[in-house]
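Minutes, project huddle
Topic: does the predicted pose make sense with NDP bound?
PN asked that the exact inputs be recorded in the minutes so nobody has to dig through chat later. Recorded below.
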Amino acid sequence: MTAKLIDGKAIAQEVRDGVAAVVAKRAAAGKSKPTLATVLVGDRVDSATYVKSKGKACEELGMGSVSHYLPADISQAELEKLIKSLNDDKTVNGILVQLPLPSHLNEERVLQLISIEKDVDGFSPINIGRLAQKGREPLFVPCTPNGCIYLLDKMGIQIEGANAVVLGRSNIVGMPASLLLVSRNATVTICHSRTKNLPDVVRQADILIAAIGKTEMVRGDWIKTGAAVIDVGMNSKPDATKKSGYRLVGDVNFEEVKEVAGFITPVPGGVGPMTIAMLMKNTLRAAEIQDK
Ligand code: NDP
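Predicted holo structure (tokens), as shared on screen:
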């Protein structure tokens, strides 16, 4: 292995310790407990797992959490009513609606309704709009892309002037990651399912962020020697040696790419833990903004 392993688990733990320390100080000063409200619609197993781990993280850091579990057939009006009541609830600092929502619901309208000061996922049109505009600052940056940038910074990887390639253009990961890289003065190429000659484009990358949800698609011979590779993908790969019958792998072929890259995140233990750590940071920030 030639690449340096980026230990997202350890780096996320440092972030969490920092958040926990501030939360404890707030408690000692008689300030409120930063509190996250999560909203889960339906019974998707993966979404339920994510929501549970977000609530658990709040508890571990001395923060509060309230979970709202809603049936898959809830109406748009009922969901909007809940969001409005969470906006008005002074004991709630952050609101997270777990995506994706069932297809009969209008996701855009729901995200638009979340008060900008409580938008800890950073997906409201105002926060994303500010992220896209030069010289404007969003109140909250989406957690997974922010976690990717945090890892690059922590490893001392220069973003300014780098050629960055982002695989994927989703609202949740690819697009905000690209906007963040541009705001840090990287030269960014955004790739998607219609991109031609993908391996050739990826070969130009000093920094690669892969977020396509395709098992180990990025091969070793796509990588520029010494590149920093951040693998966001979380895919199940059949593995008979595991009790569950599968294991988690990324969008990058780790075994091949680690021999060429300068830095690489593992899956699991790379970007995943950073997402929750950044959410905790955003929830604390929300409480601090609302103190004022
Ligand atoms: P989406 O399915 O919303 O988006 C996938 C993107 O990849 C799209 O832009 C799509 O292009 C592009 N794409 C798909 N196939 C190809 C291909 N063959 N070549 C090039 N581009 C392609 O996924 P998400 O952004 O939500 O998630 C991506 C991955 O990241 C998933 O594995 C997900 O589980 C993981 N994830 C991990 C998180 C973490 O905390 N670690 C958090 C969130 C997601 P097009 O736009 O043209 O359709």
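Observations noted during the meeting:
- The mean pLDDT is 97.
- The chain has ten helices and eleven strands.
No decisions taken; revisit at the next huddle.
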